[in-house]
Amino acid sequence: VPKKLVTTVSGCADEALAGLVACNPGLRLLRGHRVVLRDDLPAIRGRVALLSGGGSGHEPAHAGYIGKGMLTGVVAGAVFASPSVGSVLAAIRAVAWAGAAGILLIVKNYTGDRLNFGMALERARAEGVDVRMVVVGDDCAFATPGKAGRRGICGTVLIHKVAGALAEAGASLDEIEKKVMAAAKVMGTLGLSLSPCSIPGSKPSFQLAEDEMELGLGIHGEAGVRRMKVLPADKAVETMLKHMTDPSNASHLSLTPGSSVVLVVNNLGGLSGLELGIVAGAAVRCLENQGICIARALVGSFMTALEMAGVSLTLMRVDEELVRLIDAKTTAMAWPNIVTGPATTHREEVPVPTEEPRKPQDESGIGTELLSLVTYLPCLGFPWECAGMHLLSAGPGTARVQQVLERVCSTLLDMQDKLNELDREAGDGDCGHTHARAAQAIQEWMRSRPPPAAPAQLLSALADVLLEQMGGSSGVLYGLFLTAAAQSLRGRSDPPAWADAMDAGIEAMQRYGGAAPGDRTMLDSLFAAAQALHSLRSSSADLLQVLAAAVQSAEAAAEATSHMKAGAGRASYIRSSRLEQPDPGAVAVAAVLGAVLK
Question: Which domains does the chain have, with CATH numbers?
């Protein structure tokens, strides 16, 4: 049985409603019933009241849509179970006694909901209450719907919104009933899932293989109409929209080029926000390619099925009046408060401000010894940079620079899997991917333009590339290092300047990153190499010996991180007993230094 974060299985529906009401001052529970009502019931006097509801497990539906401009109240059942007749009747009486000028019940097309809401309606009418019921069936899954008709799913939320806006504007019960029934007829929804869901205390409702997805499933864990292999998001969306609009499907929604729609991209509960955004973009592109205008797009969790890792798409064909009703203000907590306007993949981008071109740095007077230094030292410990230096203009060191940098890049790409494996011990397992991405970005940058010859300009340019392309905290740290080192090198070309640049870069990383030597980070290898490079401040220093010492120090420091307790970075949240391997960032730095002097 899947794990659930509940207090008791039997009380989870009541506790969820109690938590919602506790955190929202605009909501109140009806004593003795699983009913939630607006806090300002006197405000509905003389207006039509709207009640809806159904089983729990679909949060934020239905209580999340209570508020001015949407529902007056909801009646909740247990998880995936219809509410009782007694509770529905109690909700009807509560809003009737508050002075409502008629009551409309908005019910999803499920047998249990129709029966319980319908029975309560009959009893309320017997008491003299003017109450009507609209049954919503928006499911496009079944090509030949059975006697039960189309299921009511996420499109019901749009009906809540349309009815709520009309009621808030003072429309009569007759007008609201007529207009929401018309809106329900130009709407369709289809679900797709990568996983089933499970009621607290129970096993999943069905099983899906690792490589399978389910099309056309309901919101109560029931299986769909078609099981297929997992598709890329864009192909999955195309499949969904084709099924929804296929004229051979009796429950399809008719769309023609030029049609205007409201699109709802609904998380069925367990899909990540990342995936939801990808699906939303794919849906907009697909509809645009068919000549459909997306007047509004709503993306989020609107009507879920517990933890189901899936998505549903809802389309409502709209005119100006329906768009105006969708746009009308509401205080309902689950309705998105966004800027209104059409959805499009062709939105104009904000132009990037152009940077003033830097003045070339005068490199005259750099002798043979410094050319040798420039060949090696700018690469020390910085894998992002080694992929970026190509040719330092014309001169005796050009071929050597290119050879060294190509070897460093090969080393980084060959280590991608190893670095990822080390990172899985203490992070998210992407250290190798991150370094490879940086190297590839710099290679692409070099193909597009010749790198600057001046060291300070080169480091600044590489910092820009990494900050834009590398990603993660590593990209920012490397960008900080290169930016600070470049500042230290401006106007200087002597060997001690490189030692100063190394120190400046490390100081910037420490100031913003918070790590220190001994914290089990890439800084350990960099700091060890920097200490060895301090010998460059001596006029008698042997360059190759200094470099060799820097490499040895970095390699020893990287290996030593396997015995350190992490004091910074993501690894600091992991128990020390699990950190038995060296830090991947420190290993990457040491490996690059070793490649430089092979």
Answer: 11-327 (3.40.50.10440), 396-597 (1.25.40.340)
